[in-house]
Structure formats: structure tokens, C-alpha cells
Amino acid sequence: MTRRDLPGAYQAALTALRANACEAEAHAVLGIVLSELNDLPSGEWHLRRALELDESLADCLVNLAVNLVRQSRTQEADSYFARADALSPGSLHILAQWSRLQEMQGNLERAEELLERAAAASSPQDVDLLRVLYLCRRGREHEALQILDSASALSGKAQLERGRIYDRLGRHRDAWADWQAGNAELAARAGIEYRPAAIEALFGRLQRFFTRPNLEWLPRATTRRDVPQPLFIMGFPRSGTTLIERVLASHSAVRAGGELTFVGEWPPLIDRLLADSAAFPESLAKTLAADHRHVASLLRDYYFARSEARGLNEPGKRYFTDKMPLNETLAPLVRMAFPHAKIVRVIRHPLDVCVSMLSHELGHGFNCGYRVETIVHQLCASSALVEHYRAELGLGELTLRYEDFVHHPVEETRRLLDYLELPFEPACVNSHAGAPYTATPSYSQVTEPLNDRSIGRYRHYLKQLTPFVPQLSACLAASGYTVESLSTRTPPEQTPQ
Fold first, then answer.
1. Mean pLDDT computed over 474-482
2. DSSP string spanning 387-429?
3. Domain-by-domain residue ranges, the chain?
4. Which residue, among 397, 477, 390, 464, has the nearest Cα to 180 in the 3D structure?
5. pLDDT in tens, 175-212
6. CATH numeric code, 196-479
7. What is the DSSP string of 265-334?
8. Which fold has domain 1-88?
């Protein structure tokens, strides 16, 4: 775990569990590893099993609470933080995590109360980053900046936060420098790297295999009518998928699923099912034979088995959402398992996506988000692959532009609901009202009324982004965007106060 070798950690934890299936610590460790692998339902199961075997494990209660927060189940998480605090009062880790949950839910006074308890149990410096975050939520950026500037050293996360403050204060050159430095520190600490050659090789194989002739003979599953259907919201990270999910989840017929890992679990499952000498996607050639045509139905049922563990198959809804970023790279598999599924594709200006991704720590997209160069590379590769699928497969998706949705929310919401064959409901255009926490960096924005502050944000960073515009030309053209004011003088930097 320390080396971030998660597959190795998984095998070690599994070996420990096999040695003693009744050992609480073995379940607790496996639950942590699975949660880190983003298999949150499986991680939750093992953490709960550990507590069944030993209910006094305060750390396990905290890890279960964090797991539930990541699944957007904040009400459940709150009770586990309270139990952990009762078992281990004054724990910095417990109080800081619990405080953050309260902030996520909009309970700033309670968050700050827990933060003061955490500071009293350790030192004020240990909670400075949370204090900065809460000051920013109250619009007190200058106070937050004073705390960061007085620190002897800043972590990568703190540099990203300071960069976002600089961005709001109009100090864009300083913001960009902090985002670059913060992401570099985070990537170096975790040993994270982006492998462009591996991405190009994989996407090249996907394009060569998923052609119209091959797609015509690939098997398709039938539709199961006994459960709600997945509604796929596809798009690049930071493109607006959280906004669209929030709008849809406000409809009486739709349940929010969040970022589900199930589609990404299909390729290794296919290789295990087909046991071919070739790896995915070439292994799918076996489905040409009649005795392997059932694989499409197995993919469908595997998906529903996993969604059942998340409580998404409960009756009463017509759809549940799946907004995992970059599911679109496996769109042909989605059409194999769910031939009639509704797919909503959200696009946003690529340069605004670059700025937004660089300003946050994001693991999506093969770890591309730690450098602007790798963000651009992944954007271009993903765009080319999606355009190939659209030409060869004809996804039948609805494409929504983030900018159009922000400027014309009622009209775009009606268009979205018409595509889903759902009646219009006024709650969908007031989705920010009472919006619960959603486990993405956008969690605070979705509770605000729609605004256009993030549209055209890239113009402040044209000096840094202009070298990448030629590389992004095909991506820009495919999505119908242009780059404005490349030769126009950008507003001057504000003077630090």
C-alpha cells in the first residue's frame, strides 16, 4: 500500500484472508485495499465483516465511513464516525474526516466545531488545510491565503487549494504555477505516471477490432425487464457529467448511481470467460462461435449483480445513472450488454477541461491529470476513439454541450428528458436545491444555482495553453469548439493584497 502497488496489496490481503477467514484485521485490510481500487461495494462488505468479528475497531469504523462517503451515502457515514469517536475520542484522523463530511453536507458550523476539537487534540497546523477550505466556502479567501502563505512548507493538496484561491482572486499566473507544482508533488509521492505509448497501443487495438463488420457479428444481450435500466452518462472528467446526473436524479423515475466501476471490470472478465491466447479486445473473436454467444448476456448479468450490491436494482425507478468518466472508451461493450440503453454524452470546451482537471487531483483517465501535457494527450486519444465508434457503431447517444445546458437549462432539460422518454418535472431545473453530497470534486458546485463562471475560464490561461492548441485541433473540430481571443490581450493580473 505504501508503494501504491494496489494489485500486489490485493494479493497479499487475499492471502491473509485465506489463512484465517475469521480474522477481523484480514477483512479490514482487504476492505481498505478494495476501496482504494475503487471497488467500493466489495470494500464495504469486508469492512462490515470485520466489524461483525470485532466491533471495537475504531479505524475500521472510520474506513467504512469514508467508503460510504465515496458512495455518496453520507447519512450512513455520519453514524459510523460518531461510533468511532466514542471508541477513540480525540483522534485527529476521526475528527478531521468527520469534520470534512459535515462540510460536504453544508453543515459548516458543525464542521468547524469538530475541526476545533481536532486542533486541540493535535496542533493547529495539522488541520490548517481544512480550515482554509472552510474559509473559502464562506467567501473569506484572503484569510485562507494568509494561512497558506504563513506555512513553512505546503503539501501538493495545499498547493492545489492555494492555486484555486489565486484563480478566484484573479492571480492566474500564480494559480497555474501552484497547480503544476502541486500535481507534480502528488504524482511523485505516489509514484504515479502516465504511459502515453500504452494508451496509444490500447486505443489502436480497440479501433482496429471494433469496426463495422466486426460489430455486426458481435452478440447482443436481450433486455431484462425485471430491474431498472442503467442510464450511461459519458464524458471526459470535469466535462459536466455531475451536473447532468444531478438534474436526472431530481426526476422521480431516476436513481443516482454515481461513478460505477462495472463497465471497466468487463475486459478482464471477458478474458477469464473466453480463456483465449489473445487478450481483450481480440479475445472477443471467440464470440463468433455459437458456444460463446452467451458472453453478452453474462456481461449484462454481471453488471446487474454488481449494481444490486449498490442497492440500484430496487423497484420504483425506471433508470439508475452510471457516470463513470471514460466509459465511452468501452462503448461497444455497453452496446453488447445493453443494446437499447440510453447514452447521454456530455462535452465541454477542451481547454476549459484542461484547466479544471489541472486544478484538482484526479485519478481518472489513466492518471493523465497530473500534467497539462498528459491531459491533452488523453483528451486527443479519447476524442479520436469516440469519433471512430460513432462512425462505425452509431451509438445513438444524445450529446449535450455543457455551455448550452448552463445558458438554456429549461430547453436542454426538456431535450434530455424527451430523449429518455420521461415527462418534464420542474424539480429537474432546480436540482441544486437540497442537493445531497456527490462524491466528486464538483460536490460544492452542484448545490449552487447554475452559473457561467467556469465557461471560457481558459482565456485566463491562454499563454500556458496556446502551445497545445494545434495538438487539440481535431478534438476541437470534432466537438464544434473554437479558441477565442488567442491574439487578444488577456486581462492583467490582479495585484496581491
1. 92
2. HHHHHHT---PEEEEHHHHHHSHHHHHHHHHHHTT----GGGG
3. 1-88, 196-479
4. 464
5. 999 999 999 999 998 888 899 999 999 999 999 999 99
6. 3.40.50.300
7. GHHHHHHHHH--SSPTTGGGGGGGSGGGTTHHHHHHHHHHHHHHHTTTT-SS-SEEEE--TTGGGGHHHH
8. 1.25.40
